[in-house]
Amino acid sequence: MKTGPMTLPPNTGIGLKPAHYRDVLEPQPGSAAPAWVEVHPQNYFVDGGPPHRWLTAVAERLPVSFHSVGLSIGTADGLDTDELDQLAALCDRYEPASVSDHLSWSGNGADRYPDLLPIAYTRTSLDHVSAQIGRVQDRLRRPLLIENPSRYLAFAKDEMDEVGFIHALCSQSGCGLLFDINNVEVSCTNLQTDPFAYVDAIDPAIVGEIHLAGHATEWHDDRALLIDDHGSPVSDLTWQLFDRFIGRAGPRPVLIEWDTDVPDFAVLMAQAQKAGDHMARAASPLLQAV
Q1: What's 169's DSSP letter?
Q2: pTM of this prediction?
Q3: What gap in Å lies between CA 212 and CA 107, rounded to an integer?
Q4: Over the stretch 143-175, which tens digit does the pLDDT of each residue have?
Q5: Using CA atoms, how far apart are residues 285 and 290, in angstroms rounded to an integer?
Q6: Which helix (H) or strand (E) holds 219?
Q7: How many other C-beta atoms can be found within 10 angstroms of the C-beta atom of residue 97?
Q8: Domains of the chain: residue spans and CATH
Q9: How far is CA 63 from CA 5, 57, 78, 216, 226, in A?
Q10: Which of 46, 35, 51, 54 is nearest to 98 (CA)?
Q11: What is the pLDDT of residues 181-198, one digit of tens each?
């Protein structure tokens, strides 16, 4: 039985889907198991029923991270207080090891959209988003991790680059970074910037969790447009960027995200094991030489 709040280990977790509840709770002999799991808390904004029975059973055995998709941190009209209250109640109920959301917006004061939309990297945006994060952290009574976005365009009047904005945001608000390395590949490919320079510029001290995922590719004439759909294995370039970062940052809590075309549990765990192997290799000079 869980006796108190857990912390995320510097090992690999998976995004927990209903199709895999039983695999996590009743692992077969000799089969791999995740070190921790992550859920979208909005899927549990109900008082009871099967979702809570499953999540309660999982949370008694493994650390659980909440990866919110609904706070709309960058919304100009401010946070949805009902959404925040429901998230706070769920945090009180499960005491997650980590809580995160996105550097994006998803609507206005009257409407919500099923997408994570980009914000401009300006001083005004920085002050606004920092204030909203402060409200969230005060309400949840815990620090928040903010995920770097996948971007398909850049604003013409950005006043700073994304890495500079993220570092300023973490410093000003006290939040940390959920470093999604697939999003680095997606954004840098779409915006034609250097993903290795991006990874090299991130301060490991602000990174509380790493996400790895796959993406889709659309071709427009001779130019690729990457779509962040979390529906395939991690790409070769994302593995390279991951190696580059953990080579200087060391092991971190790493999540395999797979949200569409969800595979069999064994396929998901093979990706998790691969991430663990990469971290072990980065941590061992002997393995680096192999």
Answers
A1: H
A2: 0.94
A3: 26
A4: 999 999 999 999 999 999 999 999 999 999 999
A5: 9
A6: strand 216-220
A7: 22
A8: 12-288 (3.20.20.150)
A9: 8, 11, 31, 30, 32
A10: 35
A11: 999 999 999 999 999 999
